Amino acid sequence: MLDFVSPENYQPLTPAADGSALVGADGARYPIHDGIPDFVPATGGEQPLHGNQDFYRTRAHEYDLGNSVMFRMLLAEEEPVREDIVASLKLLPGARVLEIGCGTCRDTVHLLRRDTTVYAGDLSYEMLAIGKQRLEDVRADFSRVRLFRGDAMRLPFPDGFFDAAFHFGGLNLFPDIAGALKEMARVVKPGGRVVAGDESVGPWLAETEFAKILKNSNPLFAHVAPLDRIPVNARDVSCRWVLNGSFYLISFEVGAGEPQLDLDVEFPGWRGGSHRTRYFGRLEGVSPQLRETIVRQAAAEGLSIVAWLEKTLRKATETD
Ligand SMILES: C[S@@+](CC[C@H](N)C(=O)[O-])C[C@H]1O[C@@H](n2cnc3c(N)ncnc32)[C@H](O)[C@@H]1O
């Protein structure tokens, strides 16, 4: 339990003397119910935290049946599909993995088949309770799995705590998809992988009856894979579609910051210059006639536009 931190300020937490909560030095208190620490603030009977929270709270007992129906109607076998999805994490032996939105732990059992330690969290306590029972039924080694109630956009872990982070099935309805992917990347070490997927019929199938029938029964299939919500520090990004093209699976490695460029590589050809001169050295425009004159003059002197402009402007400003 000592590995969880406050999702507010990432300060360490310790178990209360009576084991009823994890507490921070600042007085923050996260209750533990049936061994599951709860990092989701109580709403005090007001609006639920997220729009779909109620669904998974009140219908948790129906989830497993609906899940089986979904795999059957997609003519897919659940076990090999989930095994293939989890394989996208490229886990090495001994990996520490986050699964957020684990629901009733249908993928957690696949993660635990590998040499891993798994932190499986969900917004819905009711889904987690069913998941816990599943793990007990398959005699999971509870020293290798920790369940928690948490929000994908507010994870109770320090930066770089995990080797990989995984989510499947709820991303489209997260209120802040970019925030959730960024948060998953935050808690993964540089070089580790994030994998996340949800319903979305592949764009190449948009006009098929397959797509129209799926979207007619479940509008979630009309969602678009959120490639524009992937964080800028993602590297080696891929998106593939599983379950006959009905679910996207985004996968990326965690890097640092934006990709880098060598700004000073000189480009050959008539325009010349480098990224640095072209981007950071841009000047106001000149008349189209003068531009044509400069292009002709530079060519006559065997110079690129940038080289000619630099030479001429340096001379005009009498600097080196
Ligand atoms: C369709 S279920 C998928 C469950 C499981 N991953 C699976 O594949 O069977 C989506 C799950 O995401 C959870 N969820 C929704 N919003 C969440 C959030 N903001 N943070 C964590 N979990 C969330 C729901 O409670 C639900 O259990």
In short:
InterPro entries: Methyltransf_11, Methyltransf_Superfamily, SAM-dependent_MTases_sf. The chain is an alpha/beta fold and 320 residues long.
Biggest β-sheet, characterized?
Answer: 7 strands, mixed
Going across the biggest sheet, name each strand in turn: 7-6-5-8-9-11-10
Bound molecules: S-adenosylmethionine
Q: Quickly count the domains.
A: 3
What is the first-to-last residue Cα distance? 64 Å
Low-confidence residue ranges: none
CATH homologous superfamily placement of the largest domain: Vaccinia Virus protein VP39
Helix content: 25-40%
Return the average pLDDT rounded to an integer. 94
CATH topology of the largest domain: the name is Rossmann fold
Number of helices: 10
Spatial extent as radius of gyration:
26 Å
- Looking at the overall shape, the CATH architecture of the largest domain is 3-Layer(aba) Sandwich
How would you spell out the order of helices and strands?
Answer: EEEEHHHEHEHEEHEHEEHHH
Please give the CATH class of the largest domain: Alpha Beta
Q: Strand-residue fraction?
A: 15-25%
Sum up the overall morphology in one term: elongated
What is the strand tally?
11
Structural class: alpha/beta
Main attributes?
seven-stranded mixed sheet; single chain; 320 residues; elongated; alpha/beta; Rossmann fold; binds S-adenosylmethionine
